[in-house]
């Protein structure tokens, strides 16, 4: 086996965490046969989860390779890989990696600026504090709206799963599309995700405020009342 790559939190599924201890067992088996363990943190990493800077921390593991992008550039196209020294040296011994735009000083400076702002403005803390408020408000929708089947995720990576029946879990695909279209009319842009396009994947900016959260949830509730 060459390796095993996995999102520690399933991003496109709406921020679903893996079962407790899952990666510990998988990593152990992969390494036992000579493979490397790779964490895909492109969507869920970089402090967005609030309670963890990296998604793999929730699982209590340390991967051999971490891939990251998106949030680290705050809109600027920027990506990076972190790995152990022995893996990097093994790659160097086999040849070399080349990228026409790799290692750009401008991109690197932008990446440093993002980290500086995150620290100065305590955006990681904000993702945890405001994110907890966000999830609590979304979870409260389950008591008001039968279409809301479950709320997944943490911090500023959340997912609202819409179903027609909470017993059969029949996806509310059409209703989700209608919800997103109506939200657009109200000034909120959402896109359905998931295998059945019945999940609202919610990834607000790290500087999002409680006021913005309340505006969002209030309007989601308003539209759900219209649909039900």
From TrEMBL:
Q: What InterPro entries would the database entry show?
A: Aminotrans_3, Aminotrans_3_PPA_site, PyrdxlP-dep_Trfase, PyrdxlP-dep_Trfase_major, PyrdxlP-dep_Trfase_small
Asked whether the keyword Calcium is assigned, the reply is no
- Name the domain of life: Bacteria
Q: Name one GO molecular function term.
A: transaminase activity
Q: Which UniProt keywords apply?
A: Pyridoxal phosphate
Needs which cofactor?
pyridoxal 5'-phosphate
Q: Which PROSITE patterns did the record assign? A: AA_TRANSFER_CLASS_3
Can you tell me which family this protein belongs to?
Belongs to the class-III pyridoxal-phosphate-dependent aminotransferase family.
Q: What is this protein called?
A: 4-aminobutyrate aminotransferase
């Amino acid at each position: 086996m060459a390796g095993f790559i996995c999102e520690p939190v399933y991003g496109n599924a709406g921020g679903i965490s893996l079962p407790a201890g899952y990666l510990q067992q998988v990593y152990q088996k992969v390494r036992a046969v000579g493979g490397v363990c790779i964490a895909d943190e492109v969507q869920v990493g970089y402090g967005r989860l609030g309670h963890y800077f990296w998604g793999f921390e929730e699982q209590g593991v340390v991967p051999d390779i971490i891939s990251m992008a998106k949030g680290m550039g705050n809109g600027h196209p920027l990506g990076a890989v972190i790995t152990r020294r022995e893996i990097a040296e093994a790659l160097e011994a086999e040849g070399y990696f080349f990228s026409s735009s790799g290692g750009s000083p401008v991109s690197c400076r932008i990446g440093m600026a993002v980290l500086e702002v995150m620290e100065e403005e305590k955006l990681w803390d904000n993702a945890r504090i405001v994110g907890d408020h966000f999830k609590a408000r979304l979870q409260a929708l389950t008591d008001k709206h039968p279409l809301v089947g479950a709320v997944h995720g943490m911090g500023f990576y959340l997912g609202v799963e819409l179903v027609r029946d909470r017993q059969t879990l029949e996806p509310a695909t059409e209703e989700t599309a209608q919800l997103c279209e109506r939200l657009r009319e109200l000034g909120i842009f959402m896109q359905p995700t998931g295998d059945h396009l019945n999940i609202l994947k919610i990834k607000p900016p790290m500087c999002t405020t409680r006021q913005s959260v309340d505006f969002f949830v209030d309007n989601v509730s308003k539209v759900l009342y219209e649909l039900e």
